[in-house]
């Protein structure tokens, strides 16, 4: 039994912190700092669900059969629960055990099966969710984009309504609250108030204890120097660790949606550090975390002041005009567009390119496409027009919504209801270190890529030049990952076929981040190779060769084959450019 005096005291504290939560949420809205947008964001979801409902209403017989199917399942579950309460199973034999049924990790604790009521709650929830998915999949006369959007919004709704998310319907939470006399709820409410305050009125769910990591010490710690800086980026050159290095330097173009050091998380996971150890002279662009001053910086600016400025700086630093380039995610999309621009101009400064989980064709883009129809883009553009940028929290929330069970509600329950601060996890600390996006850049990306798919259609115009990927004839290493929801492997495969030169398409295991950051010493996932991306993706995969270990080893052999000549190592700041400061520089430290 709980200590009811302690419980009463904690309930008083809970009310006090609830007031702080309300104040943190309301203050920026009352001052006008945050404009209410829920109606605009929710409208699209209701509209998609409405179209699915219309399909079923148009055929009453099918609708009745679907409803009867669900009712039959729920009555069966209820019957099993009543039988367990009575100690007699359906076959008349004594039983108190729950029958074997589908479950998931949200309901893995024994309390969910040990009590008939909670077992019924979670099994009924799963049955209803599966039924709703089937209703969307089997809806007649609904186009595929509407079906995909409806399925996305269903995931948000069903994840939010899970009985695991509520104190009264979660036996683990009830037990924990009684055991701690409600102190878990007080700790959780305190952290909720802190997180809403830190988010300036928006909830920024803490996924990791970022205080345990320091840039330049625990993360982004590969030794190097910033050798160039302009308004849009810093260029970092890393210190060599080998007796000789490959003559052709390597430039990494990371996404500006988040910070570059996902490729330099720590000594054990650092792709950048590993590249240096393989004898590469590595440069990386560290994009500025933009504010209202950068509002007009568009794709042309990111090409000229980013990639082109980096190429000029590399030539000044080490005396080499030709480089190998690596583009990651949207950084790879910009790099691909830049390659088409350079091909049209006869600019041959990039000798070969690696694209990591990069889309150039967006016909079969991932779940983020759900946010990129005309109506939603107009909403985003209006918001960006007022501030000059898209807040980092907006994109972070969008990524979290791709996996709501794992990235939203599991942390909400553990932190705000169980009162347990999250552990220190470098990848999630990086994920929470979000960046803003300039209005002009983000609007160009959404419209030209997600909405109108102009790059592979030969309709994208950059720097006054109509782009044609077919003119890009340099060798390309094109990496996709098997479980990527942001740049699906099928989408990357389709886009790879638009280049005019040789493409080595490689499929790695896992997803958008873990599939890329897969170091040899701790390789968790294998990879598949099967030649150039031709024909149908499923047929390519069926005939592809699976290899154990990381794709990094396959990639470095490909890199060395492109330009095997070696030279003495180059120290950052010892060439034509002086060092400005130590890596990882200053731009990466600017918080959103």
From TrEMBL:
Q: What would be an example GO MF term here?
A: acyltransferase activity
Lineage from the top down?
Answer: Bacteria, Pseudomonadati, Pseudomonadota, Alphaproteobacteria, Hyphomicrobiales
One Pfam match? PhaC_N
Q: What is this protein called?
A: Class I poly(R)-hydroxyalkanoic acid synthase
The record's Gene Ontology cellular component field reads: cytoplasm
Quote the NCBIfam families the UniProt record gives: PHA_synth_I
Q: Can you say where in the cell this protein is located?
A: Cytoplasm
- The record lists the organism as Lichenifustis flavocetrariae
InterPro entries in UniProt: AB_hydrolase_1, AB_hydrolase_fold, PHA/PHB_synthase, PHA_synth_I, PhaC_N
Could you tell me which SUPFAM superfamilies the record lists for this protein?
alpha/beta-Hydrolases
Main site of residence?
cytoplasm
- Domain AB hydrolase-1 as annotated: residue spans: 278-518
Superkingdom assignment: Bacteria
* GO BP: poly-hydroxybutyrate biosynthetic process
Keyword tags: Acyltransferase, Cytoplasm, Transferase
The segment(s) forming the Poly-beta-hydroxybutyrate polymerase N-terminal domain are 104-275
Q: Does the keyword Transcription apply?
A: no
